[in-house]
Fold:
Amino acid sequence: MTELSPAEGVRQRNLARLLRLVHLEGPLSRAALTEATGLNRSTIADLVAELVRGGLVIERAPDPSRRVGRPSPIVAADPGVVAIAVNPEVDALTIAAVGLDRGIPVRERIEVDHLLTTDETARLIADRIGRWQDDDLAAARIVGVGLAVPGLVRAADGLVRNAPHLRWTDAPLRDLVAETTGLPTTVGNDATLGAIAEHLFGAAAGFDDVVYLNGGASGIGGGLIVHGMPLLGAGGYTGEFGQNRPGIAAATDRRADDGVLEDEVSRARLLAAVGLVAADEPALAAAVAVAGPSAVEEVDRQRRILSTALANAVNALNPGVVVLGGFLATIADVDLAGFTALVQEQTMSANAEELQIRVASLAEDRLLIGAAEAAFSELLRDPAGIAPA
Structure:
């Protein structure tokens, strides 16, 4: 790698700063970029021009309704720059193209009646990319692939150490997908990536200390944001809340002898209670909303157990906000205020004073947006290092 001169290093950082601003904040005027960065107008104009030449941002005319002062062009992330985001699960493979502008021009849920292998996952991803490049993404520029995997993923190299529900052990998924697709690939834990997405763009935006729990077909995972940064742990394996032993106050609430949290608070149990074999998140939420008495009883049982698990997390970590995604959002949102009270009743009073519990505002897109962020990371770090479109 060629070492940058001090001036080149400053320019690289400034390019990254501008690109990250329009990626995170959305379209901004040159004047807003000048104010946000403290750089002068000519420097901003020069940097924006370089990003335009690189095919990373677009400029458009200012809002004609703004008549005060000198018009300032609007700078926006180019929607044609996309990452392929993937979430493999026990019942489906969800894959989407996520734009640098956070648009999702195409997504597909491929339902399966068997456990996906890593080879099959890679082939499906490559197949969909090929099809989309002939159609929806014909004019797009794909910069990489990001995978949100329900399991332990080693941070150093993306090795899937253990995805128990998929039965993947020490699987070199990153290298396999990169070889099959020919694209740079990043792999991360699904809940960690969901936490990052909600922190940047969703229900946890503006909070520096966050506990995020994701409920999916493979169980319950978690992600932590501490002082504004993702907390990964020594190997990248933090957040396995679903493997904790739940505190269950009433013996009649227990369904799995010596089970862990995800054995008791379970999407499969919820599906069975509402009479469904399979469903995506909106369909499950709709079924719960019109559930009969037996399903309501199961929802209430799961809410009680989940509230105790969250109270333990709040006592240990003192977050400003707890965000729930997937089927956990569904059962909490039945009565979010009541659920919040259940948690607060079991926490130390000081920890509960300003605690907020929210459902994931990115809804079913949260894991895909998180996976895309992982795929965009190198581009956002060094826009100048990516070949022009």
Observations:
- The chain has three domains: 6-77, 81-193+367-385, 204-361.
- Residues 90 and 166 are 6 Å apart (CA to CA).
